[in-house]
Amino acid sequence: METNEISLHQVKVFEQLRKIGTWTTIKDVADATGVKYRTVHAHIHRMVKLGILDLAEVFPRHRYRLSEKADKRNISYLQRLEKACDIFSDQK
């Protein structure tokens, strides 16, 4: 489900995934950003559904990364995320 509003927490999650650039877990993102696990979980799953992130279903924890095809799958949402990163740049 795509929404028009993008929160600071969502920006933090997105920027951490972009910074890492490789497969990572929800726990790793939560630890690195200081955002609660459940909030990171919700944002990551939303971004997977929107085509921004790739999902690897591996044991014991699923892994996620920024998709190389994100701009082809959902350019409008990706652009809004990047714009929100600029807007929130002084609040991180």
Per-chain topology:
Elements: H1 8-20, H2 26-33, H3 37-49, E1 53-56, E2 63-66, H4 70-73, H5 75-87
Antiparallel strand pairs: 1-2
Helix pairs in contact: 1-2, 1-3, 1-5, 2-3
Describe this structure in words.
This protein is mainly α and 92 residues long. It is 55% helix and 9% strand. It contains 5 helices and 2 strands, in the order H-H-H-E-E-H-H. It has a two-stranded antiparallel ribbon with strand order 1-2. Strand 1 and strand 2 form a beta hairpin.
* Name of the CATH architecture: Orthogonal Bundle
User: Percentage of helical residues?
Assistant: 55-70%
Q: What's the arrangement of strands in the largest beta sheet?
A: 1-2
The number of distinct helices, counting runs of at least 4 residues, comes to: 5
CATH superfamily membership: Winged helix-like DNA-binding domain superfamily/Winged helix DNA-binding domain
| H and E string | HHHEEHH
Q: Could you say how many structural domains there are in total?
A: 1
Main sheet makeup: 2 strands, antiparallel
Principal-axes geometry comes out as globular
Using the CA coordinates, give the radius of gyration: 12 Å
The amount of beta strand, in percent, is 5-15%
End-to-end separation: 25 Å
Q: Spans with pLDDT under 50 lasting ≥5 residues?
A: none
Under CATH at level 1, the class stands as Mainly Alpha
Report the mean per-residue pLDDT as an integer.
Answer: 94
Number of strands: 2
Looking at the structure, the CATH topology is Arc Repressor Mutant, subunit A
Class from secondary-structure proportions: mainly alpha
